[in-house]
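Supplementary Note 3. Input sequence used for the single-chain structure prediction.
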Amino acid sequence: MNPLSNLQTPTQQQTAFYSKSLFCATNTKEYQQAMDMARDCVVAFLEENKKPFSGIAPETLKKQFESLNLNIPLAGYEKVFQEAKELYTQHAIAFHQPGYVAHLNCPVVIPAIAAEVLISAINSSLDTWDQSAGGTLIEQKLIRWTCDEIGFGSKADGVFTSGGSQSNLMGLLLARDHYAVEYLNHNIKKEGLPAEASRFRIFVSEAAHFSLQKSAAILGLGEQAVVKVKTDRSFRMNTVLLEDAIKREIGNGNIPIAIVATAGTTDFGNVDPLTAVANLAAKYRLWLHVDAAYGCGALLTEKYRYLIDGIEKANSVTVDYHKAFFQPVSSSAFLVNDKRYFGLVTHYADYLNPKDHDDNGIPNQVNKSIQTTRRFDALKLWFTLRIMGKEGLGNYIERIIETTKEAVKVIENDSHFELLNHSDLSALVFRYSACPFKSFDLNNINLHIKAQLYKNGFGLVAGTKVNGQFYLKFTILNPLTTTTDIQDILNLIKQHGNEYIDFN
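The predicted structure, written as discrete structure tokens, is reproduced below.
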């Protein structure tokens, strides 16, 4: 007897009620209508937003949220998209505009956007094979491709992550646990931190990403574990001072476990001397992690691949496809030169990834990840490579680097500005410094300039502090940004700087 025979078949009315707005075969018409409106909304964003930012102040936009009641639905998609326009899209930062040269946000390519439609709708989770099937193999193929581009051998492996911060966390996690197993015969995964952990030390450039300090804190080592090494005049890690720091920590009774080299610093876009750093890591038997979240774009171009020579000597590498491969957030990866390292973070659950799956050759990506549920972000890069190819993306990177070199000439030839660095990639730190008649605080002037640019929205730049002094920063990640665009932004900077001087 069929155990389901006593169950009542739902009526059409009941089916319609319970399937309302669900992504399923009965609602294809609603899906198509919603996607059409979403497409129109995006097209309007492209056509109507003529500058990187509307300039709206936080307090002004906040007022529009005060009367909203999320418990009362709106009357259809038209109202929802109109509300989205008023609250979001007309004020969203437009990274595709050539006048946006602020942070590490790249414009995105259309093949990746097309993939997002499939990713969101089908909603695969890339933790286990029985939730993703072909998605697992697509991700693994892209990981293998990236490992090959880095120069890793056949034992290499990796996994997609949410971003550079997560990848850096994984790099330090494996460095910590590998040292404990290899040199202390201590399994942190099973036994917790060893007594020696308070003396573990990780060496980074003073220009390295702040996520390394956060990671050390999360890992129970404390920010004290991160030893900052001064940079040279080009803002790259000074390897002489690096070795001095390693010797000093050993002399103080501490335990060096890892070095993190940066391939593309956030502020300066410069690459640490990877080969020299790798040699020191080998000499002192330290884990080498390379944070190439920014500089990984050099993998795409033969012309500038030399910038990250030595990356193949790393134990682990961070890459951010959503910074240098023109992918929508999020799309990143963490890679290791030996897949056995992932055993340090592998946990088995009978309901998810039982141990016998390994024996039967069933690939579960959760074995390599600190996430469980994970989006199929790899499909975006897959679409991009299948439509544009490595060379197509590489042309973008070459153009960006060359535009930055042209921008250097423009800034250096203008007496209104003081340029602080030349960049391996595409980040320039500078400031307005033309104060011919009075002695002005350059920090205040440049802070005023940045605020005015944000208020007007025609050209957005970032800001940073170097040795306590405030500077403006260009981060050029758009191949459509030209020298003319750079000159236009510099003219705006001069205008606001000159106005500050005139009124003070």
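The radius of gyration is 26 Å. The chain has a mean pLDDT of 94.
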